[in-house]
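pinning this so it doesn't scroll away 📌
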Amino acid sequence: MPAASKREVGHRIATIRRARRMTQAHLARTAYLSLPTIKAIERGARAPSDTSLDSIAAALGVDPSRLTTEAAPTGDRIHAAIPAISAAIAGYDIPMAPPRRALAELRSAADDAVNWRLAAQYTQIAKHAPALLDDTLSCLHHTRGRDQQEAARLLVGIARAADAVAYKYGHHDLSARLIELMRWAARQSEDPLVGSVVAYVRTETFFAARAYGPGLRALEQAIDASPTPTCPEAYAARGALHMRAAVIAGRAKDAEAATLHLGEARALCDEVPEGEYQGTAVGPDSVRVHEVSVAVSLGSDHVSQALDVAAEWSPPDDMPAERQSSFWIELARAQLWAGLMDDSFESLQVARLVAPQHTRGHPWARETAATLRRLRRADAARLTAFAEWIGAV
């Protein structure tokens, strides 16, 4: 790593550490590194290894890509992990060796995987997913009764985290296999709310194939099969399905269906406080994000609807990073269509700040950056640097 890059990485680590109100000694303890190592890294005298960078990022609660200025290693490391994830699920229905981790330990690890996905920390997922999948599958096969049902629920959450990596990095065949694993595990869980989660995630298969009509029908069937809302979790599950149905209806250019599902989602989500339910962000704020997504999905004729939402609301800081960045990426697309070039570029930069890996892997972010670079002349240096970072040039 060049000296300039080492200094920049050290500065970013120190800045985020101070924002977290952590001392260097606290960071060293939390990252399992020596205090002299942390001091050397922060002043730019030493470049962190990949392992050290992961440990520091985990201690700070950010993705490693927030700390490094180099573009290639993060993506390369994620792609390198794909074969191990694929191998871990190859024989998912075949009992293998006894589990190496107890159910309680897997429960904590599964929570970590869900949190990494919501925070768009894909390198962390890629690093840990193969062993997590393997151990949870073993636990499911070697337990019975309620323990087996819980192992199945945990497996869905872990597989969903792995699927986020596979889908967002273009490994759609693996994504489809992970979704089939989730559908199998949902049946083992005997929990209809878990089935609703899997139906929500399954929509990725239809997005990837651009099969929006069948995807909408699949979601509507899942809505009909979902439990009657009698508790916050059930309201959230059905509300999430309606949010997803509104977006895919927008992609199908079915404005009537999109409006109908968005209205149903709004009514259901008004019944629950904003939060994460079964690993999905649901609530009034999440509906607003989907209002922008639906408007952009319907096309440039609906751009005013997205701009109207953004004029009076923006995602709160405590909303999951992945969902926040989706809002800014889709708003940037709407602003581009409206001729608001500076605003569009600003939105892309906010998306990058919130969730760099999610932004960099999003095709709409890349497309918007490429278009802005082609059309604009002002601030050309910053825009070119951004376009190079996101892979638009």
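📌 and the second one:
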Amino acid sequence: MNRLIIVSNRTPGKDPAAGGLAVALRKTLADRNGFWFGWSGKLTEKPSPDAMFENIDGLSVGRIDLTRDDHHAYYAGFSNSILWPSFHLRLDLATIEAPWYEGYRRVNAQFAKALLPHLQPDDVIWVHDYHLIPLATELRALGARNRIGFYLHIPFPTTDALYAIPHHNELMRDLARYDIVGLQANRDVIAFTDFADNQSPSSLADGPLEAVDFSRTEVAAFPIGSDPDAFARLATSPAANKMIKRMQRFLDDQRLLIGVDRLDYSKGLPQRVEAYEKLLANNAHLRRLVHLLQVAPPSRDTIKEYQETSDALDAMCGRVMGRFAEPDWAPLTYVKRAYGQPSLAGLFRLARVGLVTPLRDGMNLVAHEYVAAQNPDNPGVLVLSRFAGAAEIFPEALLVNPFDTDETAEALRLALEMGLDERKQRWQALMDAARHYSIDNWAQNFLARLNPAGAQGGGGPDRDFLYLASVA
């Protein structure tokens, strides 16, 4: 088997992984030879030309340091102040500074130069997420002929939003240097194909008009998943049971609604709490019978828009507490810190309703984990945003428009009052889908496309651009 090289902005550390990307890929790489490569998390006076390798929990991990200025331009700047809001269709939150693009490309070039000496000719390289879109271009420029795949963990933007991104044609040319581009959902493939079929005139920054050639690149949807059976076992572990008993003492007979998200403006957290407020306002009989737990550890809290989201959520939770709380009943608990996977599994298993209501999201593995954690004999109900990638594979959830808080409030009422037979029927269908789109199947499907028998590196010209509606 060819070695697998995973490249991402951040690499696994010794602490428990909190993000969906790290949790998903640890198992994938553990089953194959190779290493994980990325930024060390350290900021230095000078960029590090060489990678430093160490063994972390049996994984070989290579890292490079970045300068403070380069990291700011590459990460906080171009990646998270331009690409992230634009890909999530929040152009109103995008801040454009010309030097950020230079830093973004400079860091990608640094990644490529540090990675190249550690590559073998038959290595298969799997690049992850929007921070590293130009990496294949930089590696090809250095002579790498390996098979290189790219996977986007966030939504792909609509064509109009893509046009608003500085140097968007250059970025699309970068994607065309990959052998395969994997996206979360069919809607993302459609958006990509729309650009490929209807390319706009170049901006001044992009130079003369020149269509991007995608004839050497395969584009397909590979819905990412979790390990549902492992998470189901975790939900009945001693640590999970400890959390369940702790919460049961607090809740007494109240039914728990739960949301677990990074504190990010794409997650729709103020709208979610507003929907819960409307649930209580419109259904007085549910007061004192329900409790919302929102777990939202801070994310990129040095960026202004994230602090504004935090402030809005603080105010919304305070309003609900002030309006509905009694001396012996609190309608919600809002926690700004992360919990370990066993504790979360226990909370998910206890919760009658799982709330996954982003305004726009890639897949959202919380939906998968909530489903996996349920008690098959008495499962809860998943309330899911139509704008999460998970909505395409989980139609049996209660799908909502998170911008319509009245609709979400009504879905919460239906979920709380849903009978056992319907809850079990819906859950079984969701669990079947979670198993079908498991992390193992996701990785196997992507790597089978990236490294087919007898494939040559570099993306041969005989391969056509493919629109694959789904990959099973």
